[in-house]
Specification:
single chain, mainly beta, 4-stranded parallel sheet, 25% strand
Length: 239
C-alpha cells in the first residue's frame, strides 16, 4: 500500500499492555522472523497473551530462555528450521500438554509430548499439564535446568539411567511424591525446591551423587525467598 514500508523484522518481541495482545487466540509469525526473544520472570515475552492457544512460526531458528514463560498455550508445533533453544522456554505454561517437533528437525525431537534433543537423551521440557507418560523417560541421561518446572500433575517420576539433573529441575512440582534416580551422579541447585506440602521420597543409587545447594528448600508462597528445609516432608533413600 502507498505510504507503508516493509519492515525487516528478525526477532519477535511483543509490545506493551496497551496493545490488543489479550485478544489474540492464534498467532502466526511472518517468514522473516527467525528468533523468539528470551524472557525473564519479571517481564515475560508473552505476558499479555492471556488467551493464546495456537502459535505458528515456520521459519524460527532460535527460541530464547523462558520465551513462552507463563503462556496459555495448550500445544505447540516447532519447525524444522529450529536449531537453538534456551533454558526451558515453556516454564509455567500450565495448560501445555504437548510439544510437537517437525520430523525434519535435525536438533530436537518430540516424544510423547516432551521436548528432547535429537539423540533423545536430554530432556529439555516436560509439558506441565501432563501426568505420567509411561516408559517415556527410560532412555534419558540428562534432565535440563527447569525441565519439569511446575509439573503439578506429575505424582511420580522414574529416571533409571539419568546421570545429571539440572538446577530447579523439579521446582514447583507440588504433586510429586516419589522420584527414582538410581544412576544419578549430579543433582543441581534447587532441584526439588518448593515441591509442596506432600511427603517426597527421592531414591538414589549406592554411589552418592554430588548435591547442589538448597535442593529441598521450600519457597514461601508468593515470595522469592526460601523458607527452612522441612525434613519431615523429604526423605532420601540410597539403594
Amino acid at each position: 500500500m502507498p505510504g507503508r514500508r516493509a519492515l525487516n523484522v528478525k526477532e519477535f518481541a511483543p509490545g506493551t499492555d496497551n496493545t490488543r495482545e489479550p485478544y489474540i487466540v492464534s498467532l502466526t509469525l511472518p517468514a522473516g522472523v527467525t528468533s523468539v526473544k528470551a524472557s525473564d520472570y519479571s517481564s515475560p515475552t508473552f505476558k499479555n497473551f492471556t488467551t493464546l492457544t495456537e502459535f505458528n512460526a515456520a521459519a524460527v531458528e532460535t527460541v530464547g530462555n523462558y520465551a513462552f514463560y507463563n503462556c496459555t498455550l495448550e500445544t505447540i508445533d516447532l519447525p524444522a528450521s529450529l536449531t537453538t533453544i534456551g533454558v526451558n522456554p515453556f516454564v509455567r505454561c500450565t495448560k501445555l500438554t504437548a510439544i510437537n517437533v517437525d520430523s525434519g528437525n535435525l536438533a530436537f525431537q518430540g516424544q510423547g509430548g516432551m521436548l528432547l534433543d535429537k539423540a533423545e537423551t536430554t530432556l529439555i521440557t516436560y509439558p506441565a499439564a501432563t501426568g505420567s507418560i509411561a516408559g517415556a523417560l527410560s532412555g534419558i541421561i540428562t534432565v535440563g535446568n527447569d525441565a519439569f518446572y511446575g509439573c503439578t500433575a506429575l505424582p511420580t517420576v522414574s529416571l533409571p539411567v539419568v546421570q545429571t539433573v539440572g538446577d530447579d529441575a523439579f521446582y514447583y512440582c507440588t504433586g510429586l511424591t516419589t522420584v527414582s534416580l538410581p544412576a544419578a551422579t549430579s543433582i543441581g541447585r534447587g532441584a526439588f525446591c518448593y515441591t509442596g506440602s506432600k511427603a517426597l521420597t527421592v531414591t538414589l543409587g549406592p554411589a552418592a551423587p554430588t548435591l547442589g545447594a538448597e535442593m529441598f528448600m521450600l519457597a514461601q508462597p508468593g515470595r522469592r525467598r526460601h523458607g527452612p528445609l522441612r525434613r519431615d516432608r523429604v526423605r532420601l533413600d540410597a539403594r
